[in-house]
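Entry for the shared binder. Reason: the reviewer on the internal report wants the predicted structure included alongside the sequence.
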Amino acid sequence: SYQGGPIILGQIENELGNDMDAPDSAASDIDNCNSANDEQAKNEPAGVHEDAICSDQTKGTSGTTQDYANWCGDLVQKLAPQVSWTMCFGLSASNTVETCNGDCTGYWVEQHGDSGRIQIDQPALLTEFENGFQIWGENASQPTDYFWGRTSRNTGQEVLKWFARGGAHLNYYMWWGGYNRGRSAAAGISNMYAADGVLCPSGQRHHPKFEYLQSLHDMLATIAPALLHRDSALHQDKDLLVKNSNGEWALQGDQRMFEYGAQNTNGPGKDGDGGSENGSLPHVIFVENDANFPVTAWVYGYGAVSLSPASVTVIVDGAVEFDSAIIDGQAEQYQRIFDEDTASELSWTTQPEPLRLSEKDKKVTASTEPIEQTALNIASDVSSDYAWYETNITLNADMDDATLHIDTAEANSFVAYIDGQYVAEANRHFHKEGLVTLDVPIGGIDAGVHRLLLLSESLGYDNLIGRWGVDTKRKMKGIVGSVVLGGSQDGSSTSIVVQSETMASGRRWLSFPGLHWDLGNIRNNNPNDGDDHDGSIEKTDVAAGIATSSVQARWAQTTFQTPPFDSPHRSLFLKVSEGRGHIWLNGHDLGRFWNITKAGSSNRPTQLYYQLPPDYLNKADGDANDLTIFDVFGSAHVTAQLVLSSLEVSAEPNFKDEVDYLDACI
């Protein structure tokens, strides 16, 4: 950058598609140029950026999405750092470089990008070589959105295809996925992120992928001078002859080569030296086999070569240097070691969430309809995934097989209590946005007046704003429309719905933002709802292993000393096998936990281990650590364990090159 720092490239905007209408943000940004200019003049150092952010031509105007892209290009010329700027996958300005996301070895690079300038007067940059992410309750083979991850072999094949076609840069999304701390996870996305990355979320190496890609990039480093100093081989590939079952050479269409350096156009049976044209740069050939079976192909400048299924082979100066389908056996010779000896040290203090709302409570809002959760929490200045709702229902006859139908949003859950007793839970945990009706199975209810209490939990807001059907308007959670209680007459064989009561309006509703307790008040027994609490909370000391007697949203706290361990070779985790909620370590929200099992699996949860980050831990010989769990079902702390885990070399291969392989990353 102009200050001498290590920044060499910047990005503005992301995936500004050329099929979009002008976004609200575009018109807003252009219309507010005067404000931007004033803010710049107030804050920038004198003489560094004397030009206004917005030109006279854009003041007070609105336009197309391309106009907005051009405005972004105008903006970066006046911002630090003074480096080359990119716009990721979509529209771009004339002074920015369009980069690619996702599948970039096909149409995008073949047509020189959407801008038509890639490998003409701009380099081919891949800013998101995507490696998947995880959604609660789904499995690797059938995700409802996006994909779970890539194998090492598939990763290597796509990386080499990109560089064979003249790619100049590749950024892994993600090389290290990490975790979604606090409330940062988008709708339905798990605490761990990109768990099939090259580094596990904990920072430990993902075997065999780490060693495999280390070898691949070592090889790329040796041939980089040849790729950078020679013209791109894009559109210069040659289809290869393949030996068929009759022993004859014929074109199949799924095999090709990209060459950087000297050529030999001799066919099978002809001589060719295959050497480089000079001694300074290697002669490099990328050989691709898109078929899902092995073949023998004739590579011009080399000769006959056996190609693995779905692979890219790299030949350097007449020798095979890398085959994307081959993994060194030693890269799979690791085993995961668990040390759970510290589990017995945990002794918990618990605090239940009160199961009643009162109009006397300062934060309770009484109205004729429930208040939508996002608006409720914002108005109350509460940052929380949760909200409570309460109302009374009156039944003039017994109701069997009762179901509560709640209008809500995607990625939301409800826990239902009737007369202070837990009855059911229901959730939608997809990575989607939109309004849905969530059905909560209540069961039988006797005639009479009953108190209904609902704990609403946001499972994240969709992060794809304005794209793929996702709205640009305010995000909603909790109760967003009607609430209907339906069921059948007690004892009736016809199962006719005899009572269906719309409860979302015309009655008395109490709405409470967030939870009654938080980290700031749980220790002094002073809940969030003010001085007029009904006093029903009791504190109990519960040793690990003693089960609670009922299902109730509950806080649990404990302290522990940090065990000595060498990070990142060894990591400290909290193993949580029950419930759903949040974990705090020394005041830091580590994000959501959930014991939901993967689709098609009866015993393997989406995530079982939650790393306790070394940066948040107190030193091993220092103060004790404070660990807090909030669980909507109340019993997560009972079986929670501290676990140290490491990866050790083994005599036998234990980790296969498979997506979501057991214990490769935890």
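Summary line for the report: The longest strand covers residues 249-260.
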